[in-house]
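Repro case for the chain-ordering regression, as requested:
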Amino acid sequence: MAVRDKILRPCRNAVLKGGLLAGRVDVVREKMLPYQWKALNDLLPQVEPSHAMENFRIAAGEKAGEFRGMVFQDSDVAKWLEAVAYSLAAHPDPELEAQADEAIDLVARAQQPDGYLNTYYTIVDPDHRWTNLADNHELYCAGHFIEAAVAYYEATGKDKLLQVVCRLVDHIDSMFGPEEGKKRGYPGHEEIELALIRLYRVTRDERHLRLAQFFVEERGKEPHYFQEEARARGLENFHHWGRLGCAYSQAHVPVREQKTAEGHAVRAMYLFSAVADLVQETGDEELFRVCETLWDSTVNRRMYITGGLGSQAHGEGFTIDYDLPSSRAYAETCAAIGLFFWGQRMLQLDSHGKYADVMERALYNGILSGMSLEGDRFFYVNPLEVSPKVAGIRQDHQHVMPTRQGWFACACCPPNLARLLTSLHRYIYSRSSQGLHVHFFADSEVQFVVDQAPVTLRQRTEYPWSGQVRLELALEQEAEFSLYVRLPGWCRKAQVKVNGEPLEDLARHLDKGYLVLARTWRSGDGVELDLAMPVEKVYAHPKVRDAAGRIALQRGPVVYCLEEADNGPDLHALVLAADPDFVVEVDPELQVPAITARGFRLEAVDPGLYAACEPKRVPVTIKAVPYFIWDNRSPGEMSVWIRSAWEA
Amino acid sequence: MAVRDKILRPCRNAVLKGGLLAGRVDVVREKMLPYQWKALNDLLPQVEPSHAMENFRIAAGEKAGEFRGMVFQDSDVAKWLEAVAYSLAAHPDPELEAQADEAIDLVARAQQPDGYLNTYYTIVDPDHRWTNLADNHELYCAGHFIEAAVAYYEATGKDKLLQVVCRLVDHIDSMFGPEEGKKRGYPGHEEIELALIRLYRVTRDERHLRLAQFFVEERGKEPHYFQEEARARGLENFHHWGRLGCAYSQAHVPVREQKTAEGHAVRAMYLFSAVADLVQETGDEELFRVCETLWDSTVNRRMYITGGLGSQAHGEGFTIDYDLPSSRAYAETCAAIGLFFWGQRMLQLDSHGKYADVMERALYNGILSGMSLEGDRFFYVNPLEVSPKVAGIRQDHQHVMPTRQGWFACACCPPNLARLLTSLHRYIYSRSSQGLHVHFFADSEVQFVVDQAPVTLRQRTEYPWSGQVRLELALEQEAEFSLYVRLPGWCRKAQVKVNGEPLEDLARHLDKGYLVLARTWRSGDGVELDLAMPVEKVYAHPKVRDAAGRIALQRGPVVYCLEEADNGPDLHALVLAADPDFVVEVDPELQVPAITARGFRLEAVDPGLYAACEPKRVPVTIKAVPYFIWDNRSPGEMSVWIRSAWEA
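-- result from build under test --
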């Protein structure tokens, strides 16, 4: 079957009802969005001022002052607006909507008569717009405003921001393209490509799709645009991120020739998401193969067990296959979010559980780790091993913060988290011509239509803490359709009942990780899943240097870690017993299941550094907590990969 | 007993006869010294020009041109001269001596009328001498010329360079000191302190000792000299090596208050050597305690198993206790050499085997690794684990060269190696009032005098490849004295015979690691040692993060490593069996004993990155070669710390 004939459509009307994810979304709505509004308006005395809203006031000519912040500071406002849009769709809130309208009005006033919108160039260097695409993020910021505008329009029906971005896109379209007299440039940081396709899906304006296609296909062609524009600015040599060269921004070769995930991880994820979007719109089979190859490179050779991406701080990106150091990981929160975005697009193109598995890995680990339980502290970098002392002295750990921060000079991650989490309900279910796809487990409800009649599916579960899931159907009339229920890749033993009857020979019902339940459904029908969720010892591929001789503990989709708060310092001196006798119990303070296990602490027999005698093995109980929840108590060491006694 | 009453005197007249060390010294004499002479004279077309000799010609007014090289380029010439001096003492060579004389004549001509000697300031900035001691190495270069001058005078009796440095020291003494009108400065890079004490031992000029004392004691006092001199140059803030501050150059507190080895490792070693020298001259017990504390900090918490020092490239120095990463080690060849220097001084103060053990560790591992077998390629940084691919892409490995280099822009290490190796014969034996101390095992001969009569000791051994050592005495008349023979710390089982008679109850004869054989010796008497030299599995202290779960192989004083040339790639996927059945056999290509052992290679069962199934264990033979000899075949991976199966 051709790719375009099997594309799924996400069910955006789903509602999260309870459980971990709903709880996190509540924190975003109640704490993070107000906190971030204050941050953007410089109302948090204890953190670095953002100046983002102030830049818009200055660009609108309503205040005097200088531009401050990163060259892409505008995008923090756009991402906040997008997050608000999703939140309003699920939880109307007039006060929040008024704040968003106020922000949108200001953004509109900062737009220039010709449609241009970017406070940095408007304030600082209006004569040199579009002269440094490689570094200066004008198209990136435009992309985020487009995404915000589409989301806000879909949530509220208000099109003021949509009109702003359509005028902006008209302006951009007049500047860039293959036509004579236009620049053949493309963004240093991808984002506008996927945004233009979202816009196209609302406007159906073919120019929007064509511009996205142009940006994707032009990238990496010779002569190299970034070199040409640098030369035009009078630079002899174009030095793009040292050792990394043009691969830093995935511009080393045209995307159709790319075989490995290279360079800045967030940029790569946004580009690859756009490529998958293009496949959805065009059915381009070759581009789909490119996506598959790049997906394989990313998740099978260059991804942390947490779904984190980016193996070094230099260039914030990929290095080489299997180079995944724990303590020097970059694993930017935004990169795991980008992987989630890309995974969703792949999943819509090809309903294969492998995409959902990676999305889950990212979500429950490297994404949720980006925020504190309270929602007011954030990780930008998400290492898999932290020693505060080492991070404090070593230059090669300078990017590692051993505890979450209130805000950042480069504050891309917190609003990215906000926009992902407020939109989480949109990722759980999809429709296809055959029926409904249940990609993820979360206490939730979704309505869809079969034969013009509404069907309600209520999913009840305490996932990810329990593997018990109950799907309950309510129909006005019986209907024939398929339920596609994902059996997660982490699950090695599942029991399924349909209307109380055990489903025998599950494998026969499985298609690419999805259980296909095709039948005539009646109201009151139900499906029960019992996904066995023992604690698993997970091994990395032996080529992963930093995980050699170690294991990670995982339960369901949740990767665990050791914290100093539970285990004392020198976590690397702990060794899991060969027969660890795992016990899972809810931690009274963190209120999540913690794992305890038998193990040893290695203690020196000899006070010297090197001795021919093996260290003493002192029996201890090792305690592990979910990785994403680390650093919510006293700061200290953390480690995901644990030494393990060699099994006999 | 007071420290000063038990000081040993090195026997400088010893002669290396054969074996590994003699062979290495031959290579230095025959290959390295001529090679380095060419390097200093820019006669090696394939390597970066040194310009060191050319700088002297320009400073002497004999050539036009600009200064080129590091601000301390002069010191490369000085170290070469010092190396030549030791070589001439052991192996007269008129041609080499003529080259050295020529170099010395040139240096003398470059000396300024007031005694000043430094080509950088003379050529580039003559008006600003002595204004940036923190960074600019004038006193450091002076120190190296002083050492060269003393060595050349001792070797040849020629005092031209000695006169040059005495005038230079007169000039320095007129500039620095506690007296009114003098600068209270001290070098950013220590070296002149120990050099002045060497000079004092030749000149007996108290000013030379006092100046050394001043430099040592003034360091770290408040107000901070480096800050004051920076302010005098118009700098508001003195930023000395980022996070490291004044500890970078051991100037954070006065040396008497220092308790841990901090900052740039070579600088620290040279300072601590000077402190030990001061104790030798002054008998200062408090300073001796300072040395003992700093020694303990260095070798028991901050030293690689190779004797390498310096855990990070930033600041080329120490970080915190037990932070000893393998692949990102700095472990500069010069730092291991500095540790050897300091160890020798401690050993003369306190004939304790622990100092000789560390010297051996450094010599046979982190020092000898600095040069290729051929003597024309050098390591500056000596990592304990190398993956050429990782080193090639990761910014945090930028300092790691996966193969030895022909020369360096900063070429401190090769001539430092040369001067150490040509002087090795001076380190083997010491005299005390009680007799002769045999610190090291090497095929060699030494003569000394007891009761006005000469005694010759001939040491026959193939050490470090064999633990069999025979000491043969030749005397003109019987004499009563003690032989102090070191039993190395690595040795767990030794048999000793005196004149063929087994020595029972060795422990009773042991004093701080030395076997004390006090008797009346007659010509023909002999001592036989049989030091059991099995392959040992060595464990690091469990606090050493990077060695956790791993072992190193050591045989005698020699640390072994795995190379890709013998074991294929992905060395970290190799696991030593719990019962490895070590076999030691001479490698036909490298001509040194190699170790083979039973082990496993872990191979992935699942092609993915993370899986709940343990990797397959494929039985393999693991081969290890001496660490110092790595990278003498095809470039590839190398690793010292090997994963090992958990012993039952």
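Ordering looks correct now. The radius of gyration of chain B is 25 Å.
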